[in-house]
Write a structure and sequence with these properties.
heterodimer, A: 401 residues, 2 domains, 4-stranded antiparallel beta sheet, B: 232 residues, alpha/beta, Rossmann fold, 6-stranded mixed beta sheet, 7 helices, globular
């Protein structure tokens, strides 16, 4: 009975451990999932306004990108594998219509490389290509959300849609996991510049780097800033003049934070397990005291001290492992329950809501580790009581209680 | 078989030295049935501990089966006990959570005999003490006499040189005591050396030789006409 109660402490410890690790995994899985809808090794340049005087220029000057920047960056920087300029249309809520259906969607004027940078999954037709850019062709690539709304069941490829009363031919459709990103229309950057009187203006530059090293990405970022500062004449230290967001750095940082969370909760979980071990050890000590006579008898009958030590250690290992396994099983059960509840919440929330928690789980490595911890824990818990038991004098057997 | 020469043993308790055994000389031959008597403080228990290789002694010598038993490591002592001595205790000392069969088989476990074989042998010995039908029972389900018979079967199973019985009837009523003594006499009749420590005269009279201990020395020895224990 006493042993049962104590094994409860190990059970509880392992349960907490498994649960915490699982929650930690769930958080980082959700984070990875949220990130993975876009390529992670990208650098984004945004126009800013100077905040410092520099080489005779006043602060408060708007920095603007243009087609030349795109070309220059594409050809002169190491590590730039993909590049796309983006052009904002001059007004929001641009109406898009097909026959009698119409709606307004986000229109993204970009270059061909944007397909990979955004991880757009083209499912039919094609994405914008180089010839579209060269010839300012009026073509459009629609997200699945747009297709569903405008075309219903009809095949959209080859059909014409009207964007701001200009006809565009649909050349492809794409589908992404993220619902929000499914409600976009892509058109060639050059076409948009021409139709909407954009001249050479580029509002935003997205770069896909060929590196997975945060350091390399950082170097590229600095080089880009230096180039822009020279060409647009602003203080390279003036962060407000040019905003650069480095997704790889963000991703790595966030991943680092989540891993740290997992390790921290795992660490506390381990402490709970440790408390359980101490509990077992304690109770084993009392049990050993209670069983002094038994050990004396065994010794009188020919048990060596080693026999007794091993016996107690093995008992401790069996108790902790059994209790711990119960903990693992219940812990995984709880995580599965949490996952089911989370899936329900996801199903009932707006499609583009960020997911905080996903696929909590224990991988094989953690399960194997937990088992190893259990066996070791049992051995540690049993060791001191066992050594005590091994020291029992066989003369005890002859004494009367 | 058993040869003790000028054996001394003292215990140090704080600043005092308690001289318990003051030169014991004793020889017991194979096949004897001996009782050791003495009041408490006579050194009876200490002598028993030493004969049973449960305790060391200071000087003199103790040979069991021509082997000198002196200053052994605990591990070696355990192995000698297992091989040479079968213990029967006053309070039976069966392991409460093991059934009769497992209790009897225990000494063989420490010899490394596999379960199947030791259970087979244990059944044989349970039959010898007439309790084969009780092999699945726990000690708590048995009477005192039955428990002592289980303990005797356990003492016999390793085929030891001597059976050492410490007050084997101390916790039993007269009728059951005689039953147990009958069993021990039977074992002795089969050729086994049996040493019984007791303070009951009627029990000692059921042995062939009485050794009386007083103040750490052998006061006298008697060779009574052995009374056969009657099973009532």
């Amino acid at each position: 009975m006493r042993t049962l109660l104590t094994s409860l402490s190990v059970f509880w410890g392992i349960l907490i451990f498994i649960f915490l690790i699982g929650i930690g995994n769930g958080l980082s899985n959700a984070m990875k999932k949220n990130f993975s809808s876009d390529a992670t090794n990208t650098i984004w340049l945004h126009q800013g306004t100077t905040s410092k005087a520099w080489k005779g220029t006043k602060p408060g000057r708007r920095i603007r990108f243009d087609n030349y920047d795109l070309e220059y960056i594409a050809n002169n920087f190491e590590g730039v594998e993909l590049i796309s300029g983006r052009f904002w249309l001059p007004y929001d809520n641009i109406s898009i219509s097909y026959k009698n259906e119409f709606s307004s969607y986000e229109i993204n004027a970009c270059d061909p490389d944007f397909e990979i940078i955004e991880n757009s999954n083209v499912i039919t037709g094609r994405f914008i290509n180089d010839i579209d850019i060269q010839d300012n062709r009026k073509v459009a690539v629609l997200g699945q959300g747009v297709v569903d709304k405008l075309f219903k069941e009809q095949e959209p490829i080859g059909e014409y849609i009207k964007i701001n009363n200009v006809m565009f031919r649909v050349v492809g459709t794409y589908k992404e996991d993220n619902e929000r990103e499914n409600r976009r229309v892509y058109i060639p950057r050059t076409t948009a510049q021409k139709i909407f009187n954009g001249g050479q203006d580029v509002h935003n530059i997205a770069i896909g780097t060929g590196t997975t090293s945060v350091l390399d990405a950082k170097v590229l970022e600095t080089n880009l800033r230096n180039y822009m500062s020279r060409r647009k004449v602003f203080d390279p230290e003036d962060k407000k003049a040019l905003h650069i967001s480095n997704r790889l750095e963000d991703y790595t940082k966030t991943l680092g934070i989540f891993n740290a969370i997992t390790y921290t909760v795992g660490f506390f979980g381990l402490f709970t397990v440790f408390a359980g071990i101490i509990g077992i050890s304690n109770i084993m000590l009392i049990t050993v005291k209670d069983r002094t006579k038994e050990f004396g008898i065994r010794k009188a009958l020919g048990a060596t001290p080693m026999n007794i030590v091993m016996m107690v250690v093995v008992e401790a290992v069996i108790i902790t492992t059994a209790a711990g396994y119960m903990g693992i099983v219940v812990g995984i059960g709880l995580l599965t329950g949490a996952d089911a509840i989370m899936e329900m919440i996801i199903a009932n929330s707006p499609p583009d809501a960020p997911v905080m928690f996903r696929d909590p789980g224990i991988n094989m490595g953690v399960a194997v580790m937990a088992t190893a911890i259990l066996v070791m824990a049992g051995a540690i818990a049993g060791l001191i009581p066992a050594l005590k038991a091994g020291k029992v004098k066989p003369v005890i057997a002859l004494r009367d209680e | 078989m058993l040869n003790i020469k000028n054996l001394h043993k003292s215990y140090i308790t704080g600043a005092n030295k308690l001289h318990v055994l003051k030169g014991i000389n004793l020889e017991i031959a194979e096949g004897e049935l001996v009782s050791i008597m003495g009041s408490s403080g006579s050194g009876k228990s200490t002598l028993l501990n030493i004969i049973g290789i449960l305790d060391n002694y200071d000087s003199g010598s103790y040979h069991l089966n021509k082997e000198l038993i002196k200053n052994m490591s605990e591990t070696k002592a355990a192995q000698y006990r297992n091989r040479l001595i079968g213990f029967v205790f006053q309070s039976f000392n069966l392991i409460p959570f093991k059934n009769a069969l497992e209790n009897v088989a225990l000494p063989l476990y420490y010899q490394g005999v596999n379960r199947k074989k030791r259970n087979l042998i244990a059944e044989e010995y349970l039959e010898k003490v007439g309790l084969l039908n009780w092999k699945e029972h726990l000690p708590s389900e048995m009477s005192g006499g039955q428990k002592q018979r289980i303990a005797i079967a356990r003492a016999l199973i390793s085929n030891p040189e001597i059976i050492l019985a410490d007050e084997p009837t101390g916790a039993l009523d007269t009728a059951t005591s005689y039953e147990v003594m009958h069993l021990l006499q039977e074992i002795n009749k089969d050729g086994k050396t049996v040493i019984i420590v007791t303070h009951e005269n009627d029990i000692s009279l059921m042995t062939k030789r009485i050794i009386r201990l007083k103040d750490g020395i052998i006061e006298k020895e008697e060779f009574p006409e052995m009374v056969m224990a009657q099973t009532l």
